[in-house]
């Protein structure tokens, strides 16, 4: 059996609207091995969530469409699956933890009813067995008095507790792959740490692969084996986590890392930011999407799209000035770029 669990090749997901075609994901490729944790980082609108939703084919039917590429899970073509096959695939083999726990649960049904219904949909068990499995799952994720919580409505629980319920539902069927789409965004920092520790423990216990989508680079360092940086629908850098943090190469990655607040003994300093705004996704694909915000920009950046090049073993970068031959020095702004 191959060690590769998920393979995405040349994925292009576009949104067709009255104002034009928005290239939300425009040629993304990556692989995820069994038991591996991969992080996808980038600003809002970079294509992180659309990439994950494309994997489970959860796109708006009126506007969203996968126009090109391949997505295989254990060698099976996800894009060729029927609606019935998708229903069995989602939840049983692949589970998703969405970023807002308060809207991921139906407010008019009790926690127990929702969990039992989900378990019975994917496993051949009785309602009594499903109830016991749900109680065990709630206890496993650290929810006190799980039997009592089964009788509660979502609005009776805190945000952190609801997120634990979502995680419990995700692991009930022992999926091989979990998509965690910004699972700590709506939570305070203390609960964030608890949720991340919980995900790490479950990943180790079940040997489950995780695709973690986040804005928080600190979370990536703590959780992920490798990381992919996205910008305007494209991969701009991809490497092992330690390699990317110790030797980042793309100017956008430098900007993200420089934006992390740091504790120091120096006088108060302004928080460093990346100037400008992301491009209109209806107009991308003709040049480097980051050129108008990049202090290292040259004429070539405005004229052609930089290919994703392996500049070091396992370290890929999409930058005209980081092509393996030419090497850009961080902080060294050339005359052309000024």
UniProtKB/TrEMBL annotation:
One of its GO terms (biological process) is peptide transport. It is a peripheral membrane protein. It holds the Pfam family oligo_HPY. It is found in: Cell membrane. Residues 6-257 form the ABC transporter domain. Transmembrane segments: none annotated. The keyword Lyase does not apply. PROSITE patterns: ABC_TRANSPORTER_1 (PS00211), ABC_TRANSPORTER_2 (PS50893). GO terms for cellular component: plasma membrane. It comes from the Bacteria. Keywords: ATP-binding, Cell membrane, Membrane, Nucleotide-binding, Transport. Its main location: membrane. Belongs to the ABC transporter superfamily. It comes from Candidatus Flavonifractor intestinipullorum. This is ABC transporter ATP-binding protein. One of its GO terms (molecular function) is ATP binding.
